[in-house]
Design a protein that fits this description.
The complex is a heterodimer of chains A (340) and B (295). Chain A has 340 residues and is mainly alpha-helical. Chain A has one domain: ABC transporter involved in vitamin B12 uptake, BtuC (Orthogonal Bundle), CATH 1.10.3470. Chain A has 13 helices and no strands. In chain A, helix 1 packs across helix 11, helix 2 packs antiparallel against helix 3 and helix 7 packs across helix 13. Chain A is globular, with a radius of gyration of 21 Å. Chain A starts with a helix and ends with a helix. The relative contact order of chain A is 0.17. By secondary structure, chain B is mostly helical. Chain B has a single domain, classed as ABC transporter involved in vitamin B12 uptake, BtuC, CATH 1.10.3470. In chain B, helix 1 runs antiparallel to helix 8 and helix 3 crosses helix 4. The longest helix of chain B has 31 residues. The chains are: A mainly alpha (340), B mainly alpha (295). The interface between A and B is large, with 44 and 47 residues.
Chain lengths: 340, 295
């Protein structure tokens, strides 16, 4: 293989890892707990900006050619940790605003509007994160400390991404298999039953919004450190539906489905088509990508709404030794076992 | 003083534009109970259709007629055929929101592919201008206000005095009782999609002419502002949407004049969030009881 191709493939693998983390985060919120978070990309954006502002030096150090708040020049891995932290913290205001007891479609619309407001504010407040132009020259992790070729650096960054993926997988799997994960599925399937059992669905949803938001923030931080630039055009509201499409195509509510979706949608459609032989005017392929994504979404919602790898049906076996089920019936069983 | 006057006059103009779309959006929601997130993309599609069909007509009345007709057709296709099929398959709330988003993405980016890297200029020849206390209003803006008032009166009369309007209000209130009275809810819903699309197309053409240019994202931004008007007035209520449009129109003009022009739309969107959070039934009450707005 030519070195150019290897370089390209290593970059693709990094993007796959970053998307994987983001999609698993959304799977926690949407697949597991049933939150229609149409503002999901804002969490990723916030993580991206956080990583950028933590890693950049103050604006004066670059001759003030861009304006932004802060610029803390923190060493690796603090910007990434900060990104995850900010992504998680952002869940609190967004959750308090949008997770009211609204109809599902109203809630989705409120989230969508929050996403548009975030984009509008990032563009209008130029002093915050350099307005519509966005931030550039964001330092990469360990930049200047390692003396390696661009390809060598790609391998190092791939290792870092893989490590983050393992952490994300461990967190998501842990939540999904824990009693807490069962409660979240129960909230998704029958909120009133969970409330009747004495659990607080709002609090449960808020905690998983924070956990998913932290993963989104981490993915945003990695993305920004990899591409070294971040602006409002990178996180317009359709990006949210890229992640939703990935989950609906792959299969929501399970990690393998999310992984398959990450491979098929953000990588399979968006990234790979960047390297089709150019036809038409520049940007035509990008537009057509989104038409394909919309079509994918419609086709899957019609023919296979549970995705290619559907969530395993969890059934409580009455005579079984272990509480094999999850979801509402398992909660009921757990309660019954606890009370007897 | 001139500032206040211009806020009010251009506020009324924005309100007129918003009201045409918001009434269409809210009427269709009230009758069909489908939150149509593709409304903005349909609005853009109407401008493209009008631009393509009449070859950029300079006559504002022909433009409006073509825009309204194409809107009715597109809306019927999207709403009655595609969304209707998903509804018959048993999709609900979130699933339908996803379907309308998918359609919206396909339409918007399909139009972007057609449009190419250009912004399309769009203007009807305007002749006279009118001067009110130092504020100049173009004939196009004046026409928009007049058309909006006529459309509002027509919708009001349709809903209050005709059999069709009665059927629509009945379908909004109770589907099974309506069916029991021998009225076909499916046909009433189809009419609601048609009417909503016609108003959407009218709004789109007037918006495009007012802005002087359009692109594939013109409608999706305007849609959120228009939805703010509909939600503020109590979604599903055409009369509420008119009041909502007036409030949003004047408040967003005030935000543009007082803070900065880039806050014109953001102000409207923040109002939308505030209403959704604090008072989802809208500023006019009485409505929430019959429709399960608060789950």
């Amino acid at each position: 293989m030519s070195s150019g191709l290897i370089y390209y493939l290593s970059g693709l693998a990094i993007l796959l890892g970053i998307n994987l983390i983001a999609i698993w985060g959304l799977d926690l919120q949407f697949g597991l707990a049933g939150i229609n978070n149409f503002a999901y990309v804002v969490f990723q954006a916030a993580g991206g900006y956080a990583a950028a502002l933590f890693a950049l030096k103050p604006a004066k150090a670059y001759g003030s050619f861009e304006t932004y708040l802060g610029g803390f020049n923190l060493p690796f891995p603090l910007p990434l940790l900060g990104a995850a932290l900010v992504g998680g913290l952002l869940a609190v205001p967004i959750g308090l605003i949008a997770m009211r007891r609204l109809r599902a479609d109203y809630q989705a619309m409120a989230m969508l509007v929050l996403s548009l407001i975030a984009t509008g504010l990032a563009q209008a407040q130029t002093g915050l994160v350099n307005g519509p132009t966005g931030l550039a020259l964001i330092p990469q992790p360990l930049a200047g400390l390692l003396h390696v070729s661009p390809l060598g650096y790609n391998w190092i960054f791939l290792g870092l991404t893989a490590a983050c993926c393992v952490i994300a997988w461990w967190v998501a799997r842990g939540i999904s298999r824990s009693p807490y994960g069962r409660l979240l599925r129960a909230v998704r399937d029958s909120e009133s039953a969970v409330a009747a059992l004495g659990r607080n669905p709002d609090a449960l949803r808020m905690t998983v919004l924070i956990a998913g938001g932290a993963l989104a923030g981490l993915s945003g931080g990695l993305l920004v450190e990899y591409v070294t630039a971040w602006g409002p055009a990178s996180w317009l509201y359709p990006e949210t539906f890229l992640f939703f499409t990935a989950l609906i195509v792959g299969g929501k509510g399970n990690l393998a489905g999310g992984a398959l979706g990450a491979l098929l949608v953000p990588i399979g459609i968006i990234e790979v088509t960047r390297h089709l032989p150019a036809f038409g005017y520049p940007g035509l392929i990008d537009s057509l990508d989104w038409v394909v994504i919309g079509a994918f979404l419609l086709v899957f919602l019609w023919f296979r709404p549970n995705g290619l790898l559907p969530e395993r049906k969890r059934v409580l076996r009455p005579g079984g030794a272990e509480p094999a089920g999850t979801g509402l019936r398992a909660v009921l069983a757990g309660r019954r076992a606890g009370s007897s | 003083m001139t500032l206040l006057l211009s806020i009010i006059i251009f506020g009324v103009y924005s309100a007129a534009l918003l009201a045409i779309g918001a009434v269409g959006f809210t009427l269709q929601f009230g009758v069909t109970n489908v939150l149509n997130l593709a409304f903005g993309s349909i609005l853009t599609a109407c401008i493209f259709a009008e631009y393509g069909l009449t070859g950029h007509s300079t006559n504002i009345w022909i433009a409006m007629a073509v825009g309204a007709a194409s809107g009715a057709v597109i809306s019927l296709l999207v709403g009655h055929v595609v969304v209707g099929a998903f509804l018959r398959r048993g999709a609900t709330g979130f699933g339908i929101a996803m379907v309308t988003i998918a359609i919206s993405l396909m339409v918007q980016f399909g139009l972007e592919a057609i449009q190419g890297p250009y912004i399309l200029a769009y203007a009807a020849t305007t002749h006279a201008t009118m001067k009110i206390g130092g504020v100049v209003l173009s004939s196009g803006q004046l026409t928009t206000i007049i058309v909006a008032v006529l459309a509002m009166v027509a919708v009001h009369l349709l809903l209050r005095t005709t059999k069709l309007g009665l059927a629509m209000r009945a379908t909004a209130a109770d589907v099974s009782l309506t069916r029991g009275c021998g009225v076909s809810p499916a046909r009433t819903r189809a009419v609601a999609w048609l009417l909503s699309g016609a108003l959407c197309g009218l709004c789109g053409v007037l918006l495009g002419l007012g802005e002087g240019s359009f692109s594939s994202s013109t409608g999706s931004d305007f849609f959120i502002t228009l939805a703010a008007a509909a939600v503020l007035g109590g979604i599903g209520k055409p009369s509420g949407a008119m009041i909502g449009a007036l409030l949003i129109g004047i408040m967003s003009q005030a935000a543009a004049a007082v803070i900065s022009p880039s806050y014109k739309t953001i102000a409207a969107w923040i109002i939308l969030i505030a209403v959704l959070v604090l008072r989802p039934q809208g500023i006019l009450a009485e409505f929430a009881a019959e429709r399960e707005l608060v789950a």
